[in-house]
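User: Please run a holo structure prediction.
Assistant: Happy to. Please share the sequence and the ligand.
User: Here you go; the ligand is histidyl-adenosine monophosphate.
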Amino acid sequence: MSFQIPRGTQDILPGEVEKWQFVENTARDLCNRYQYKEIRTPIFEHTELFARGVGESTDIVQKEMYTFLDRKGRSITLRPEGTASTVRSFVEKKLYANPSQPTKLYYIGPMFRYERPQTGRFRQFVQFGVEALGSNDPAIDAEVISLAMNLYQTLGLKSLKLVINSLGDAESRKAHREALIAHFEPRIEEFCSDCQTRLKQNPLRILDCKKDRDHELMETAPSILEFLNDDSKKYFQKVQDYLGANGISFEVDPGLVRGLDYYNHTAFEIMSNAEGFGAITTLCGGGRYNGLAQDIGGPETPGIGFALSIERLLAALEAEKIELPITSSIDCYVVTMGDQAKDRAVSLLYEMRNAGLIAEKDYEDKKMKAQFKSADRHQAKYVAVLGDDELERNVIAVKNMETGTQEEVSIEEVISYLTSKL
Ligand code: HAM
């Protein structure tokens, strides 16, 4: 019997995993510069959290969650995204009571959605996301968007498009909602069954329907921007001013509605324009979600954040043919000849590694020539050759693989010799 990996998941093997580590380390460094601190929440939560947090009318909650009953019959869901869990923790652990606000958090971890797998779309994928809770300053909107752009740019991506929109505050949204219902209701039977449900639940989501995308009423639908009240307009203008001051170009797209229910005010997406990137071009999505903390039982708290998947980021790097500066060379490969030398190499390697050197040896009883080949494959900077003969004289021959020069040093001194050279 043989086993295959579940559809929509991947094994990330050595050779590829270094890219992931590089991207993750870059994201962590950047978060430190912006002073976002890491939060780690469970991979599964009570289903109700996502139903409330992400929203009953979303595709995620209706069709895409990995939900199961645990042994005590409680409904559990593998997290489809990180915002609901982060806000749950913020409320439950009373992070709002911390004198230093806003609370700026980030996470990197696997998310699960039962979607139809295709290029750039997985059932398990890794999101890097940030959430800033407790500030209503449009400068924090610009900061969050800038951080996302910064990550892509730091990694070398050039073909990026930032699209922003405002979904307005509660008052603006209510007015827009009524206009949308009046617009779609008379002909709602021409729309898919999902849209018919959305009409009453959340008519904004109709604008995001993939099935009815080409219906003529879509194009003439009332735009949110016409319904923004003065406060919402001012807020949106300020976000744009700050982005402009940071030198970040963007487009305003009144059709950008996002697929989750919790958004208001700023919504944004970053896409890749790279040729051959594929059908799914969205790299990153986010927005403001004032009210989410309250919806899940916490105090009224403004919040904004984004999430992006490492899978799509790596695909964008590939489409733009960007090589990450990953080095996999080692400091020293120990080549041995003879049984006693082979035994001595075991503790020598241990000492080298204790001293902080990246060191390796052969474990397959290879001939000397094959050991040298192995050293090459490891891109060893130095090769230390130890034969029984050298062992008797208490020396080891150290070869610099770049210059080809070789020196004999005493075994006791080889580590300090290498450390001084590297
Ligand atoms: P989202 O738009 O559902 O938003 O997902 C954000 C990002 O996650 C997408 O832009 C994409 O990079 C990645 N992603 C989503 N689904 C998949 C998939 N099936 N395969 C690969 N990558 C995927 C959220 O998740 C919100 N929590 C973002 C947010 C944070 N809003 C405020 N704070």
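The first helix runs from residue 17 to 34.
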